[in-house]
Amino acid sequence: xxxxxxxxxxxxxxxxxxxxxxxxxxxxxxxxxxxxxxxxxxxxxxxxxxxxxxxxxxxxxxxxxxxxxxxxxxxxxxxxxxxxxxxxxxxxxxxxxxxxxxxxxxxxxxxxxxxxxxxxxxxxxxxxxxxxxxxxxxxxxxxxxxxxxxxxxxxxxxxxxxxxxxxxxxxxxxxxxxxxxxxxxxxxxxxxxxxxxxxxxxxxxxxxxxxxxxxxxxxxxxxxxxxxxxxxxxxxxxxxxxxxxxxxxxxxxxxxxxxxxxxxxxxxxxxxxxxxxxxxxxxxxxxxxxxxxxxxxxxxxxxxxxxxxxxxxxxxxxxxxxxxxxxxxxxxxxxxxxxxxxxxxxxxxxxxxxxxxxxxxxxxxxxxxxxxxxxxxxxxxxxxxxxxxxxxxxxxxxxxxxxxxxxxxxxxxxxxxxxxxxxxxxxxxxxxxxxxxxxxxxxxxxxxxxxxxxxxxxxxxxxxxxxxxxxxxxxxxxxxxxxxxxxxxxxxxxxxxxxxxxxxxxxxxxxxxxx
Length: 515
Fold this sequence. Notes:
Elements (H helix, E strand, L loop, with lengths): L2 E2 L3 E4 L6 H10 L2 E4 L1 H18 L25 H12 L3 E4 L2 H16 L7 H12 L3 E2 L2 E3 L8 H11 L4 E3 L5 E3 H8 L10 H4 L5 H31 L9 H5 L4 H14 L3 H4 L14 H4 L1 H23 L7 E2 L5 E2 L7 H29 L22 H17 L21 H31 L8 H10 L9 H13 L2 H10 L4
Parallel strand pairs: 2-3
Antiparallel strand pairs: 1-2, 4-6, 5-7, 7-8, 9-10
Helix pairs in contact: 1-4, 1-9, 3-6, 4-5, 4-9, 9-11, 9-14, 9-15, 9-17, 11-14, 14-15, 15-16, 15-17, 16-17, 17-18, 17-19, 18-20
Pathway: Amino-acid degradation; L-histidine degradation into L-glutamate; N-formimidoyl-L-glutamate from L-histidine: step 1/3
InterPro entries: Aromatic_Lyase (IPR001106), Fumarase/histidase_N (IPR024083), HutH (IPR005921), L-Aspartase-like (IPR008948), Phe/His_NH3-lyase_AS (IPR022313)
Protein name: Histidine ammonia-lyase
């Protein structure tokens, strides 16, 4: 099993956790390899070495790869076979992939090596750990994975660094020749032996690493969405009666109930809400869907996250390689490298993120329209006409939402055959992961603009005071009411508050822990 400390992640025969991935990828936690993993790798390596001299071809040990698997490779050419595999597959192109993604990818490949099911020598795994601990990150590019037969090009660029070739970024972030960076760090490059090159590139680690990071981010963002929705309900003089626990229980969707509970807590003790609680003080019968149905949509997002987390945890517990060394010592080909399970949930999360953002934008738009904002000035401007208020902030939000809808188009329904039709159906899971990262960034920005808008709306309800939780969020934003000012920095401040969890922290200081 994996043991996580604030400083150390120990990789053993059992799976790493999503928290482990975040700790190593984002916080540079130190990686160690457990004794159980070293023993398991040594045992399975002995199996591979027994096959190396066999006159019967064994895929990945004494044959070519993919459509070239029928070619038997003589013993003297085996090391060149491994070098050629990695060099040829390190064919990525396009923009550089983020450091945290590469670190997550390397940790997950290391985790699979540590299961003892891939047949690599312990030194290979130890070198992966050494690179992570030295802060050395291979340069990997946007394009090159079809999400099947492994995230081939991204993983090959990582393996190339283990061989001492290619380019990396060192701990300071500088681009270096790998050989120089390894020499300075005291890390010996690995000369790959039979089966090892294939074992380093045959996994779903890139897409799974990004899924793990995405789930961490989305868990915070869906709580943030509950808070911003509650602020909008308050600022638009909406009702919290519809979030009552007994009403939610009539439709026992787990996520919906959790979101409604959050909104009740955030709106607790709001003088603004109390000012129109009685029927003769509030002529409206029902709020618009974007207010009234906020828990239903955010709750569905929560349930989607829960499903994706289940798939991620199963994949984290997997030993994905082809061929694989079985527990009873056989070496067998398989199709476990196909990324479909991960690809589907990556697409599903992008759909959920787009819809959550879409509802957020609708609430923002209501604040700006005098026919729907219940007494607030046009565009929440200080002097409408002279000032434009938050008019263009909504334009920015709308542009992002439109982009999120495009990103919600699934990648996993596409497939382009490769390797001379040997690999004739692929998952495109890496592509799904890349667009999900962009979707999460966009959702963060949309929620930030709603937070900014709702805060302005709540301020304009003075002298009525907001709920303690919503008031704390407004205070954390620190944006004063008044004439128009340079708006982009205010938006970016709100974005940073959303991304770092500051919105949730400010609310929870008054509500206690939220779901």
